[in-house]
Amino acid sequence: MINAERQEKIKEYVYANKYANINELAELFQTSTATIRRCLKQLEAEHVVEMVRNGAVLVSDGTTFEKPYLVKRQQNGEEKRRIAQAAALYLHTGDSVFLDSSSTVFEMIGCLRNLERLTVSTNDVMIASTLSPFTNLSVMVIGGLQRQGFYTLTGCFAESCMEQVHVDFAFLGVDSISPNGHFMITNSEEVGIKRAILWSANTKIVLCDHTKFNHTTFMKLWEAQDVDLVITGRELDDATYEAYQELGLKIQRV
């Protein structure tokens, strides 16, 4: 394993576990503790971790903290699949749909096999490539600049493409829903394309697991009234559900 690959995998491990033990990492990656220590020192220089006795801890999960793509895919997987299945029930033969770059939206792919003449647009190259064997639908990729470390296409070219598209449904992902009902994201790169997607759809549905509620992240995307429906897991507690209902959000728990 080359050093850059090892470094990225250690970073994913730390993001997922919040703590990394040097001896455990050395065993996991079949390398020396000295090599692991050097990798962690580099992550400390990047302000990802703080070195502690026998290991390192994650520095912060503040408003700009974003987990690696694979970590996002792995977390709350069963809940995300339930959400995706419920979302797919809104689609019918002949519909046009936009699938946003989101780990929860990604789970919709397996639910689309029985829908005929579906037209799918996406700005996620992983979603597009996974859909490529499907013969029952057409796929259009919104071009743009690929975000480093992710499969999302963003930027002015992507936003310009969205101006030419109008779909029946947009299924959207967010990093958080703030206590005052704002839909938010950790990075500024995706703000423009996510806003463009929203305004290009008749029906806007946000898919997010229950952990996204009552958190504030770096950039505001939309107000509560901009979205038609939020689909989340039944894990969302009643008090939180009722509080957001009072803010005007329509929420479906599945």
What does this structure look like?
The chain is an alpha/beta fold. It folds into two domains: 3-58, Arc Repressor Mutant, subunit A, CATH 1.10.10; 69-253, Rossmann fold, CATH 3.40.50. The protein is built from ten helices and 15 strands. The strands form four sheets. The chain has a seven-stranded parallel β-sheet with strand order 6-5-4-9-12-14-15, with helices on both faces. Strands 1-3-2 form a three-stranded antiparallel β-sheet. Strand 4 (96-99), helix 6 and strand 5 (118-122) form a beta-alpha-beta unit. Helix 2 packs across helix 3 and helix 8 (156-162) packs parallel to helix 9 (191-199). It is globular. The model has no long low-confidence stretch (mean pLDDT 91).
Q: In the CATH hierarchy, what is the class of the largest domain?
A: Alpha Beta
- What are the secondary-structure elements, in order, as H or E? HEHHEEHHEHEHEEEHEEEHEEEHE
Give the proportion of residues in helices.
Answer: 25-40%
Number of strands: 15
Instruction: Report the CATH architecture of the largest domain.
Output: 3-Layer(aba) Sandwich
Q: How far is the N terminus from the C terminus?
A: 41 Å
Largest pleated sheet: 7 strands, parallel
Fold-level CATH name of the largest domain: Rossmann fold
Task: Please state the structural category.
Answer: alpha/beta
Uncertain spans, ≥5 residues at pLDDT below 50? none
- Can you list the strand order of the major beta sheet? 6-5-4-9-12-14-15
User: Domains counted in the coordinates: how many?
Assistant: 2
How many helices? The count is 10
Percentage of β-strand residues: 15-25%
Mean pLDDT: 91
| Rough outline | globular
Rg over CA atoms, rounded to whole Å, is 19 Å
